[in-house]
Amino acid sequence: MVEPSEQIWMDGKLVPWAEAHVHVLTHGLHYGTGVFEGIRCYETEDGPRIFRLRDHMQRLLTSGVALQMRIPYSLDQLCDAAKEVVRVNRLRACYIRPIAYYASIGAGLNPLKNPSVSVAIAAFGWGAYLGEKALREGVRVMSSSWRRISNSSSPANAKVCGNYVNSVLAAMEASLAGFDEAIMYTDQNVAAEGSGENLFLVKDGALATPGLNTGILPGVTRATVLTLARDLGYPVEERPISRGELYLADELFFTGTAAEVTPIRELDHRLVGEGKPGPITRRLQEKFFAAVKGHEPKYQAWLEPV
Ligand code: PPE
């Protein structure tokens, strides 16, 4: 559940939470022509620290390029604005949601005729994405009937608002079928990712994760876990993974800003390993939480003071 905060940053001004409106004829609302981010700020012994803020804001700018969007703020300005939102709301642990969208009013597809872009950054309390129990015990997931969008129909590797219809369909289907989350495959039947998470497999002590050419979001948490795994000495590969291979995995887990490192205990009614989080998943999860909470000097550079 989202816990509202007091103020939201909108185009350089702080606006009360309840007044942070956009016009109903906004281009971004009708056509999904926005790009967004999800960033977590963690409470550490030294105060709040935003995890990999620059990497997230850089991805926002890069996603904008895919929509030919001129975001009217620099990387530094976006990072400063995010810190300001955390500060003015006196938040400690929170979730930060920046969005940049084509803001023209009226109908007509091509936004380049009136290319005004608005940017908003909100910060609010948001606990464990799939629940605290999910982090401890793992989640039950299904193979989605919806295919992950491909890079040939949309810039699938960019965090574009419109892309998320695909994820929303998969998330609704999984929830209505009684599962916690979905795994989506490409049109070529290789595993891609969850509706809002990247996917990892562990087999015989080695890790594998789908490559970016499957149309996945290049997750910041995915990159973090790849680094942690390599530093711990686990072999890691980015490669195609079939559904059958997922069924025979020793361990599966999701990564994401919201989902953090969430073990998967069941896929399509088949237990993953022994049906509980496996040892490598647990080790990576522990390392991840140690890093974000400032307990790993080696990864301090990932933590941004507000
Ligand atoms: N894939 C998708 C499709 C995705 O939306 C996310 C983040 C990831 C992978 C993981 O990326 P990263 O957060 O950089 O490690 N999903 C965000 C939104 C979730 C939502 O429900 O909204 C998030 O985790 O913040």
* Total beta strands: 18
Global shape: globular
Biggest sheet record = 9 strands, antiparallel
Round the mean pLDDT to the nearest integer and report it.
97
Structural class of the helices, strands and pairings? Answer: alpha+beta
Topology order in helix (H) and strand (E) letters: EEEHEEEHHEEHEHEEEEHEHEEEHE
- Counting H and I runs of at least 4 residues, what is the number of helices? 8
Small molecules bound in the structure, each named once: ligand PPE
**Residues in helix, %:** 25-40%
Point out poorly predicted stretches. Answer: none
Q: What radius of gyration results from the CA coordinates?
A: 19 Å
Terminal residue distance = 24 Å
Indicate the proportion of strand residues.
25-35%
Can you give keywords for this protein?
single chain; 306 residues; alpha+beta; nine-stranded antiparallel β-sheet; nine-stranded mixed β-sheet; 8 helices; binds ligand PPE
What does this structure look like?
With 306 residues, the protein is of the alpha+beta class. It contains eight helices and 18 strands. It has helices spanning 27-31, 53-66, 75-88, 132-137, 164-176, 220-231, 243-247, 279-292, and strands spanning 2-3, 7-10, 13-16, 34-36, 39-44, 47-51, 94-102, 117-126, 139-147, 181-185, 191-194, 198-203, 206-209, 236-238, 251-256, 260-267, 270-271, 303-305. Strands 1, 2, 3, 4, 5, 6, 7, 8 and 18 form a nine-stranded antiparallel beta sheet that branches. Strands 9, 10, 11, 12, 13, 14, 15, 16 and 17 form a nine-stranded mixed beta sheet that branches. A hairpin with a 2-residue loop joins β12 and β13 (206-209). α2 (53-66) packs across α3. It is globular, with a radius of gyration of 19 Å. The two termini are 24 Å apart. The relative contact order is 0.15. The mean pLDDT is 97.
